[in-house]
Design goal:
Shape: rod-shaped
Number of helices: 4
Radius of gyration: 70 Å
Structural class: mainly alpha
Largest sheet: none
Keywords: Coiled coil
């Protein structure tokens, strides 16, 4: 419990209070004349003022007593204030550290955004290059298809030419075979007088082709034909 300070209890001297009120009394009231109704009214007003003063002084005492109770636990209260202040300082330091961290994160975020823009630009450039390469591949593919079509047409023509060549070879082999048989027949039976004027020497060195040899020639050309596809 705290000790009541005499300075907290406020007392207003009654003499000064009366002096202040008495200064307002007209000079006629200070004369030696007998009391009048005005004097009685003044007395009543004076008593009322005195009662108000006493009530006012009592209210001041109650206020002082309340303030005294308020400050009875002042040391503990001041200690709590110091604790609150330290906590407030700690919170302020945390706030400052958080603000610095936020600024650091914002700078880091700006760097990440800049890096993202660079990466995005590089990706877009790479995509453009890939797109150009795809277009180039498609163009080459179309060109290759055109070349393949030309080759196929050329192979078709070559196949037709081979077929014609086979037919010609077959016909040529047939003619040579018939000529060889004819020469052999002339050699066997002798040449009549009507064939004596014929010069058959160019056909004597041709070999007579049998069916087996002609089949080999066909197989060779068929294999050659397959190599074109």
């Amino acid at each position: 419990m705290g000790i009541r300070s005499p300075g907290i209890s406020i007392k207003i001297p009654e003499s000064r209070f009366f002096f202040n009120h008495m200064s307002k009394i007209p000079n006629l009231l200070l004369s030696d004349s007998p009391p009048t109704k005005t004097d009685e009214a003044f007395e009543k007003e004076l008593d009322r003022s005195k009662n108000e003063f006493n009530q006012f002084n009592q209210d001041l005492d109650e206020i002082a007593h309340s303030m005294e109770k308020l400050f009875e636990g002042a040391p503990e209260w001041l200690a709590n204030i110091e604790k609150i202040k330290r906590e407030q300082d700690s919170v302020e330091e945390s706030i400052l550290a958080t603000q610095e961290k936020i600024l650091e994160n914002e700078n880091h975020l700006e760097k990440l955004k800049s890096l993202q823009n660079e990466v995005t630009e590089d990706i877009n450039n790479d995509l453009k290059k890939i797109q150009e390469q795809i277009f180039d591949i498609l163009e080459k593919h179309r060109s290759a298809r055109s070349n393949t079509s030309n080759i196929y047409n050329s192979q078709s023509r070559t196949s037709e030419q081979l077929d014609l060549m086979l037919q010609a070879i077959h016909e040529y082999a047939r003619l040579i075979r018939e000529a060889s048989l004819t020469i052999k027949h002339f050699d066997d039976v002798g040449s009549p007088l009507k064939y004596e004027s014929l010069d058959l020497s160019p056909f004597r060195h041709y070999k007579v082709f049998d069916n087996k040899e002609i089949s080999r020639i066909y197989i060779f050309f068929f294999r050659f034909k397959k190599l074109l596809y």
